[in-house]
Amino acid sequence: MKIITWNVNGIRAALNKDALAWVWAQSPDVVCFQEVKAREDQLMVLHREKLKLPFVWNAAERAGYSGVATFFRDQPLETILGIGNPKFDCEGRVIQTVWPGFRLMNIYFPSGQRGQARVAYKLEFYAYLLEVCSELHRKGENLIITGDFNTAHMPIDLKNPKSNQKTSGFLPEERAWMQKFLDSGFVDTFRQLYPEKVQYTWWTYVSSARARNVGWRLDYFLVSKALLPRVRDVVIHDAALGSDHCPVELILN
After folding, report:
1. Confidence of residue 48 (pLDDT cuts 50, 70, 90)
2. Phi and psi at residue 39, in whole multiples of 5°?
3. Where are the alpha helices (DSSP H) in 161-232?
4. Is-contact 145 248, C-beta < 8 A?
5. What pLDDT does residue 114 have?
6. Rounded to whole angstroms, how far apart are CA atoms 86 and 191?
7. Sign for the pseudo-dihedral over CA of 228, 92, 10, 152
8. Tens digit of pLDDT for each residue in 26-47?
9. By C-alpha distance, which of 85, 76, 125 is closest to 104?
């Protein structure tokens, strides 16, 4: 089973650049897009033929902002929009799909780049999501959380950790919440398989950062520990263009 995650930073722009052709060429079973910045009906007239798979959409109430979409080859057993909290669900950040053996959560985590209020909101989101996940774990479910976490967990996960210690995305309190997920029964699959590998998933558009590979690893697949034996590989496709993020692929047995 192949699951691809990608923050497309505007799906209409990605479609206009034909960037999603790369995704469909991989023959994925599930695709999780974040930051789609559009409502479903805004794509139907111009781009329906480019949306190669059935999908479920969760747009933000605010136009042109946030939003996630999950595409799939086979119909999931169940689909849930959001995580049951209007404070977060109004921003269209989560789609849950249930599959035999696991629940997949496609998530666009808040960014803290717009000031302290958004950092606080981001940390509240982490906390609430962990409560939801812990309850699902208590019920015996296995989970896969994927998407743009907007946080680099460890110094190896960004090019310049020393100069970014006061930058949202690498703040100690943000990194601590990433660790809490790992301490609560999740595994960072890429880092589990490649403990010393330096590879990034996001580069600012400023100063030719991508060409110089001055990046951050912000996009993850976290899985419940019980699912780890099913993980065959995690691939960061950093040569795939079309966004300031690149796709990441999880391959499951």
Report:
1. low
2. -90, 155
3. 172-183, 189-193
4. no
5. 75
6. 33
7. negative
8. 999 999 999 999 998 887 655 6
9. 76
HSE-CB at 199 with a 13 A cutoff on CA atoms is: 18
Q: Which residues touch 198 (CB under 8 Å, ≥6 apart)?
A: 156
* Residue tagged active-site, from 18, 41, 148, 244: 148
Helix axes 172-183, 116-138, angle to 10 degrees: 0
Task: State both tokens at 89.
Answer: 């669900």
Tokens, residue 245 = 């993020």
> Which amino acid appears at position 92 of this protein?
G
pLDDT category of residue 143 using cuts at 50, 70 and 90: very high
pLDDT in tens, 54-77: 999 999 999 999 999 999 999 999
State the pTM of this model.
Answer: 0.96
C-alpha 221/C-alpha 231 separation (Å) is 10
Which residue reads 């989970």 in tokens?
A: 143
User: Which residue type sits at 86?
Assistant: P
Specify whether 188 is catalytic. no
Written as one letter, the residue type at 135 is E
Helices (H), the chain: 11-16, 21-25, 41-47, 86-89, 116-138, 172-183, 189-193
Rounded to 5°, angle at Cα 126 from 199 and 96: 85
Q: How far is residue 50's CA from residue 116's CA, in Å, rounded to a whole number? A: 39
